[in-house]
Amino acid sequence: MAGSVTPPPEDGPERGDAGGSAPDADGTPEKTTGFAAGPSGYATTENPVGAPAHPVDLARGADDGGTITAEERAHGSDPAEPQVSTAPAGSPATGHETAGVGEHLADDDFAFPAGLWRKVAAHRPPGLPTQQVWRSPLRGPWLTSVLGFLLLISLPLVIITGLLDWIAYGPQFHQAIPSNVGYLHLPYFQWPSRPAWLFQLTEGLHVGLGLVLVPVVLAKLWSVMPKLFAWPPASSVASLLERVSLIMVVGGIVFEMATGILNIQYDYIFGFNFYTAHYFGAWVFIVGFVVHVSLKLPTMVRSLRSRSLRAELRTPLADTRPEPPDPDGLVAPNPSTPTLSRRGALAVVGGGSLMIAVLTVGQSLGGVARNAALLLPRGRSYGDGPNDFQINRTAKAAAIVPEQTGASWQLALSGGTRSVLLSRASLLSMEQHAAELPIACVEGWATTQQWSGVRLADLARLAGVPAPRKAHVQSLEQGGGFAEAWLESNQVLAPDALLALKVNGADLSLDHGFPARVIVPALPGVHCTKWVRSIEFVA
Amino acid sequence: MRTLTARFRHHYGRSPLHLLTLVASFALVGYVIATLGPKQLWNPHVWWQSIAVWFVAAIILHDLVLFPFYALADRSLGAGWQAVMGRVPDRMPRVPPVNYIRIPVMASGLLFLMFFPGIIEQGQGAYLRATGLTQAPFLGRWLLITAVLFGSSALAYGIRLLLVHRRPGAEELSSEGDDGVEHA
Q1: pTM for the whole structure
Q2: Which is it for strands A410-414 and A532-538: parallel, antiparallel or unpaired?
Q3: Residues of A in contact with B142 (CB under 8 A)
Q4: Closest chain B residue to A179, measured at CA
């Protein structure tokens, strides 16, 4: 590539020949795509607006791999596209570059109802970009498959951790949101109370990995752009259905990422309930993802094998050539000069992910790393004091007033034969237990502090319920989604499960739940109720 | 004679397994919507705050909004560069600058795309209620990161130019070599 001429690899509506009637790059008139020999009769279509030119040799690919849809076969339907003869390896040699198309023009090119598909194919909407507008020399099945492979191994982790977080919220108490999900959940199990960092890990992975994958998803969507504008959009019922199924996977992933990204930043502009939308949206995506993977896996494997990753990583820009024309029409028929090597493109995507990772990880890990989370909502410092750590919901927002938390405050314990009222002084006179525990939020951040207070197990014993099945904690806060929480027996009886009175050696601040708050290992932060008013232990 | 499967394939376009998979998936999505309750999809008061609207928007967000925008920007970059420099080939730098511009633009743009709520202070009420803080620092932080991105790209480009000029008989315009990209 000359230094003076650096055409970008990107695509855009550069050419005005959207009608597709221009001669191809070699000046070959379109009709030389030569499907005249085809037995289906459609061969005579010398359609000036780009009727499907060679769906048939591409259909061979479907027979080979069994995964290429008719829709995709029809991709390269631009008559101006020069690579009409690119039957996949193994297809019968035609010895005739352009007529090769017609050779395979069996009945398979359009399935039932063939007349309809043909008619659709013949009526290409004016202005729809042709294959020619795609100029990137890097697009191709190999690159798409590398990105697809990365998502195939990473997205399941995002999915599983997301579904686990729903379990962590305690669906058995109807406090997982949304509460009514039918069969759409992981098998129920008791959320463990150790390791203490379990929820920090699952939500950190869910949010963190979700953010890190944004560049990969964008690159993947970029890489398959030509398919969106392929005409005809379908050539069989099969390809039509498969196209419809793509709505689930494309709409699903972008919907999940958009709502998730907005929610962690407290931007509720979407207006609907985040949990509900994100949870059910996830299931739409999961269905689409599973279907997409099962239909495309053979194509992916074949494409990955078509080039050596090691060789690609050694190929500099000067030696970067487009991938060979593919049946899916991803490879540009008229590519511009590369300005980026294939390894360079992967480095750009990887670099983007790395940048997001560096900016994100600090809000989960906390400590010094938090300073790196410059743009994340929880990459903020409150200062150096014992109570200067991440606040979730201020006392002001919860409408907690000092009178409620003053000397008259008492904790009410119930569930046993007698009710117990405890002042803060009497709580402080009980055996104090200290534990270093993370408090982690479903929004993907966490902070680890040194808490001290009375064990919940001791309070249960005091209330006369030494082995509770569950406990109901209520806050001074009136209303609000998290003014109360149910705890499982393992969460009450865990040795480090506390009604915390102090943090880092100082009294809790009002924003952190003074006079007392719950802190339980591996429990979602919002269920570590602040400004506790009462605890009922249920035997 | 055709087998039943072949005949099916002829009419349907793919194998029966393909059809079974897709029908199962559509039924499953139907179950998802039924469980959610179709009414939940639509907000009768504010239409654009509907799950359905956002889902449809999500389908086209990249392909019909983001893509045309960044593709046009990238082509403009190439075309603009050529328009400015193409007429004076003598003064053309030996290292094409395109990636040294493109990469910091992409990085800064990605950060804005993902973290714009903080940067433009959208949702400040909820952020204040949750954290007790304002979103004020985010714009400055983003600008600072952007400055660092472009600054380091400029530095890398400068070093590259220097190296090329120092190398006697360095690659001429026509073969700028491979590493222009990877150093970016």
Answers
A1: 0.84
A2: parallel
A3: 375
A4: B36
